[in-house]
Amino acid sequence: MPYLPTDPDNPPVENARAVFLEFYGHLQPELLLTLRDRVLPLFCLQYPTGLTVIDAADLHQMLAEPPHRELIVEVTAWANNFGLTRNGKPAEWAMLFALATLELWQRSLKALENLKWGQPAGLQEEFPFGGEPGFFSLTGEPDGEIFLTPPQTPIWNWAAGESEREFRQRYRLHYAKAAEQYTAMVTEEIRRRGWIRTPLAGCEYVEALAMRKVGKGLVSIRTLMRRRGMNVGCEGDLSAVAHGIERAANSIHIDPPTTMRRNLK
Q1: Angle (CA) 213 133 28, round 5°
Q2: CA–CA separation, 135 and 197 (whole Å)
Q3: d(CA 265, CA 260)
Q4: In terms of Cα–Cα distance, which of 90, 79, 94 is closest to 38?
Q5: Which DSSP symbol is given to 140?
Q6: Residue 183 confidence (pLDDT) above 60
Q7: For residue 29, is pLDDT > 90?
Q8: What pLDDT is attached to residue 192?
Q9: CA torsion sign, 203 to 199 to 93 to 100?
Q10: Facing residues of 86 across strands?
Q11: How many CB atoms neighbour CB 202 within 10 A?
């Protein structure tokens, strides 16, 4: 995978975004309260039985259907109001997180009470077809097709007399063999194409990005980052912190705070 959770310098894009939203929601409670109070009632009205999957296809379908226009307007306004934008427009990934969260709250009272974030499905391809850093061939060719081949699910031959225990054993053996074949094929394809992993720059600054989004000064952010053992540059020089925050924003595809370049306070 392009960003392995076990590699500290290669966190998944989705995880970095989720971590950022956790920090942002903690620092700015209105982020989730607005979603709950303004958008959830409309979501429940338009999706009384819920959405089983929240992914890019769901969002694009909703954007194209007039009946969902009011809901999309509210989600768009939410993203704009809290600066969850990319190039001045609502970030699609942020809207997907919002929809996934609404869907989770609709079916889980506990998640609603705890204001827990939902997790979109298929938000970031493990091997993107372009646009975001990940696995790239030495020729600069990103590709993901070979990783989208799930093994066929075996069928329980109940009518033929197969017991549940026999089926479970066959099921495990089937997927063990499929996993072995799959990993061998992927490993060979990685070797053939010369793919390498590239770090996701700036993710160590997602908390600082959230702090800056709610108006915290760079001095207080630098103090916290230094307390966490991070390299934040020389005393009195805030440019390292500012650049780290900007890298984090670019890594998760969100606009940096608007005041970032105008002052270093």
Answers
A1: 15
A2: 5
A3: 9
A4: 79
A5: S
A6: yes
A7: yes
A8: 75
A9: negative
A10: 89
A11: 20
Residues 62, 71 contacting (CB under 8 angstroms): yes
Each residue's pLDDT tens digit, 224-263: 888 888 777 777 788 888 988 998 898 888 999 875 444 4
Report pLDDT digits (tens) over 117-137. 998 875 443 333 333 334 433
Measured between its terminal Cα atoms, the distance across the chain in Å is 39
Q: What is the DSSP string of 70-135?
A: HHHHHHHHHHHHTT-EETTEE-HHHHHHHHHHHHHHHH-HHHHHTTPPP--SSSS-SS-SSSS-S-
Q: What type of residue sits at position 99? A: L
Residue 26 has pLDDT above 80, yes or no: yes
Residue 49 has pLDDT above 60, yes or no: yes
CB 120 within 8 A of CB 12: no
Burial of residue 231 (CB within 10 Å: 0-12, 13-18, 19+) is exposed
Q: Which residues are registered as beta bridge partners of 196?
A: 136
Spatial neighbors of 265 by CB under 8 A, at least 6 apart, are 217, 218, 219, 238
Contact indicator for 11, 203 with CB cutoff of 8 Å? yes
Q: Locate 168 and state its tokens.
A: 């479970």
Q: What is the CA radius of gyration of the chain?
A: 22
Burial, 192: exposed, middle or buried (Cβ in 10 Å; 0-12, 13-18, 19+)?
exposed
Name the pLDDT band for 152 (thresholds 50, 70, 90). Answer: confident
Q: Provide the greatest CA pair distance for the chain.
A: 77
Helix axes 56-64, 92-107, angle to 10 degrees: 100
